[in-house]
Specification:
heterodimer; A: Ribosomal Protein S5, domain 2; 12 strands; elongated; B: 233 residues; alpha+beta; Ribosomal Protein S5, domain 2; five-stranded mixed beta sheet; globular
């Protein structure tokens, strides 16, 4: 199987006819869930994910009394593929949500101080949930793009006398000051490619997720897979990500 | 305060706008989407496939296993914590019982047919929407079915018997309160495969509600058939 794939990659052809650095058709649509404070649907070819942002009021963590809380969670639902089972999150779901989380957290994309209501007592929390509807490869990049899209349109619910009215949204947007976007580059044999199909993911030796902000600063990295990467690999993969990220950003 | 005019201006027997689509999840063996008002539901069918663990297998026929889940951002208030809750497990059970009577799984001993129901956006009527979508997804999966199952919530808001309650109607606190009665109906035979009720009702209102549910179910059943037919044309 792998030899067959490598032979075809040598000719620069992938199973679905794409070039190595070519994404499938990307679509982003907004406000797909009226129940959420912000939401988006992202499709990469057959991959289909929904991302919703919910907000709540909580007590801040003792070490960050003037900052709001933020989290990313991912549900790889059994609805979306026969590979996934119901039950506690798989390690794949945990890694995915943590990598998306890290990109947003480390680039300080959300101004967490602007989420403070009263120091050491009350802060807003921003909870981003990624749910897969059809899993057809490259879920991480789809989740990252969806998270950014949903955060961009998320608005605070009305908050008065310590009560949140989730049915009424204000014009106030979630304080998003940077726009981190993850792009994952896969290595199969000597070839580097993006936006893999499930079969390509399965046969990949290694992958590197490179999260870049709007000004093309790298703000998070995550290497996956069992085969080590050379410095040359890492830099080539970074070049690909820096080239792809602005293209993906145009879809927002 | 009585309830003679519905919040959204509908007539008592009027359903919210509906739309349906099959084949929305290419990975699944059968799938469908159903939207009624602001309630949106996806259903996917996987199987018949081998059932693990083995002690759950039935050597005579396949079994149906339903999973119901609200996406974390789909609730009316706070974020819904991911994972199974007592509520979601009970709903999965009653949906399973609502669908079983139309399925013939005798050709699939030791196998399981999995139905996964996921809701991205909700405004009441989620278990009914789940049944409507799941029923179409089972048909799309090519499983032997006696007929389709449609479902709708009827009930009494104030003193009026109405069909397809919204969340605001379920929460009505005026005189008479609110009574919510989700029902699944086998369209051809008119028999009822899911019946629950929250609230109070007298026998006359119960009879009116049953009639109303049957008429509403017919409309939903027509949409299910039309959607499936169009898909295969």
């Amino acid at each position: 199987m792998k030899e067959h794939l490598l032979k075809s990659l040598k000719k620069g052809v992938r199973y679905d006819g794409r070039k190595l650095d070519e994404f499938r058709k990307v679509t982003v649509s907004y406000d797909v869930s009226k129940s959420a404070e912000g939401s988006a649907k992202v499709t990469f070819g057959g991959t289909h994910v929904l991302v919703g942002v919910k907000m709540g009021v909580e007590t801040p963590y003792p070490d960050t009394p003037d900052r709001g809380n933020f989290m990313v969670n991912a549900e790889l639902t059994p609805l979306s593929s026969n590979r996934f089972e119901s039950g506690p999150p798989s390690i794949e779901a945990i890694e995915l949500s943590r990598v998306v989380d890290r990109g947003i957290r480390e680039s300080k994309a959300i101004d967490q101080k602007a989420l403070c209501i009263k120091v050491a007592e009350k802060v807003w929390s921003v909870m981003v949930d990624v749910v897969t509807v059809n899993a057809d490869g490259n879920l991480l990049d789809a989740a990252g793009l969806g998270a950014l899209a949903a955060l961009k349109v998320a608005r605070f619910p009305k908050y008065e006398n310590d009560i949140i009215d989730y049915m009424t949204h204000t014009d106030k947007k979630v304080p998003l000051v940077r726009e981190p976007l993850p792009v994952t580059v896969f290595k199969i044999g000597e070839y580097l490619l993006v936006d893999p199909l499930p079969i390509e993911e399965q046969l990949a030796d290694a992958r590197l997720t490179i999260t870049v902000t709007g000004d093309n600063t790298i703000c998070a990295l995550q290497k996956g897979g069992e085969v080590p990467l050379s410095s040359e690999d890492i830099l080539s993969m970074t070049d690909i990500a820096l080239k792809i990220a602005p293209e993906l950003r145009k879809k927002l | 305060m009585s309830y003679d005019k519905r919040y959204d201006g509908r007539k008592p027997e009027e359903l919210r706008p509906m739309s349906a689509k099959v084949g929305v999840i290419p990975n699944a063996d059968g799938s469908a989407m159903f939207q009624v008002g602001n309630t949106v539901c996806y259903a996917a069918v996987y199987g018949p496939r081998e059932l693990h663990p083995k002690f759950l297998q039935d050597p005579k026929k396949g079994i149906l296993r339903v999973n119901y889940n609200m996406m974390p951002f789909s609730g009316h208030g706070d974020r819904v914590r991911p994972g199974r809750s007592r509520r979601s497990q009970e709903i999965a059970l009653v949906i399973q019982n609502a669908l079983l009577p139309v399925l013939d799984l005798s050709d699939y001993p030791k196998a399981v047919v999995d139905v996964f129901i996921e809701l991205p956006q909700t405004d009441a009527g989620t278990r009914c929407a789940g049944i409507v979508a799941a029923s179409m997804a089972l048909a799309h999966a090519g499983l032997k079915m006696k007929e389709l199952v449609s479902a709708v919530a009827v009930g009494k808001v104030g003193d009026s018997v109405v069909a397809d309650l919204t969340y605001d109607e379920e929460a009505f606190e005026g005189e008479g309160g609110s009574t919510d009665m989700p029902m699944a109906i086998l369209a051809n035979s008119g028999t009822v495969s899911l019946l629950q009720m929250d609230g109070e009702i007298n026998k006359e209102h119960l009879a009116t509600s049953l009639d109303l549910a049957k008429k509403a179910a017919q409309q939903i059943s027509d949409l299910q058939k039309k959607t499936l037919k169009e898909y295969y044309q």
